[in-house]
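Give me a protein, keeping tokens residue-aligned:
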Amino acid sequence: MSLQEPIKRELDESSHGIEVIEHEIEERQHHHPLDNIKEKLLVSRGSIVASILSTLFLRIGSRTSFVILGFYLGKNFESAVLAVVVIEAFYISELVFAPLIGALSDRKGRKPYMLYAPVVGSIAVLMLALASIIFPRPNVGVIDLPLIALLLMLLVGRLLEGMATALNAPANLGYLADATIGSDRLRARVVTAFEVATVGGISLAIPFGGQVYRLFGTAGFAVVIAIYAITYLCIYFFMEESLTREEQSKAQGSVIESLSVIKEKRIFTFIPSWLAVNMFLGAALTLTTIILAYPTPNVGKTIDPITFSAEARPTVQFANSVLHDFKFALAGQDADTRHPNQLLYGGFTPSDATMIVGAYGLVFLVGMGIWMLIVPRLRRTTVMMVGLIGLVIITGILTFYNSLGENPATLTDGTKTTILFLLPLLILGVILMSGFTPASLIHLAAISETLPGKRGAVMGLYSVLLGVGQFIGAWLGGIFVDMGGFYGLMIYSAALSIISLGSVLYMRSHNHDLIKSSGH
């Protein structure tokens, strides 16, 4: 019997199936001696908190950098596509390096790679700060050597920031998966906290970054470096390593083999749903701040010809034309001219724009906190479908809002009342949608337990899907915005919700969301 047990365990592990989980449950219930190895993977509660805080600080730093850079580019670049390509280069390096770091962290431990992240991030911000100092007012009308040098410096800076996130996210998620082996309830709380830290860092840093830029301009990059320093100290002093040397030595297979986890059916069929939602979030969080703050320099600054005599009206109309052209030259193209009759396309101050997006992020965080108590009691695909219903509500209400005026300066009291009347329904939509991301992350973590020794590689897919979604989503969204303004962004969002729904329905019909974790 003593020989059959290890043989059976080896066969179970080689199959990478759910039988591994069932066997580990039985072992834990009977206090098998091998439990000691598993217990070594557990870390203190304070260490888990430090792990999650490191993600929060890192995301705040990178998103604050994004906001500062976004306003710097917004003053000098009119095209949403060009600005997005520069800013979202961040996600290219994240999606390239994340799966590799995830696989390496299975072998070398989680903490070393998490420590590298804030160091690389600080180097990146120094590059961005240097670019803004050398080129405070670049001439983007002519493609010359200085402009190319500026773009290269900005691209390198953003690529390095993406690498910093790639160093943290997969190793961090692998760390949390190590610490919550066997408990769906604990895992739901921990990964939801991680997602709150991620989304909170991204969303709440937008108004924070707006205030930093208002106070310091591009000198605010120094604040970002300070945030990265706090991140390093948090990891170095308060985080324990989750993998023992025994566990690291067991994960010495090929890195390429670990990266092949994407071929697993449950992962492959899950990708379209989460990728589509990440594409929406990437477009919404990246583009909304920019397009809300597009300049509308001619609002309320024309002369009404009706107040003049019929003979003088042609002269007044000509003066209006000259005035418009003069303002156009000073302030860039008028957003109301590009896409007229769209309330949410231009006219907001940078501070107001960032506060609006920050409010969305705050409601999203509250929603995830609520879902943290509900997700363990429901099928994961049920939560995902409810989230997509929320996305439909958001899209519908924002589309209606967009039709209510030319810009904020033209709103009547009646229109403002209508906006406030529908606001609770919009908040409900955001809360419903917020359940999608923690449900997806819990689903990915559950899949990781069916692939022993590859938890870091599997959880690294989180960064890949986030990175691909944010980059491609923002880039394609920028094209839709350039073509149709805010309406274009809403059409794009509706298409993504349909794609995600198809994937979720497939997972549900094949019971891919019924994987359970092994019990402690």
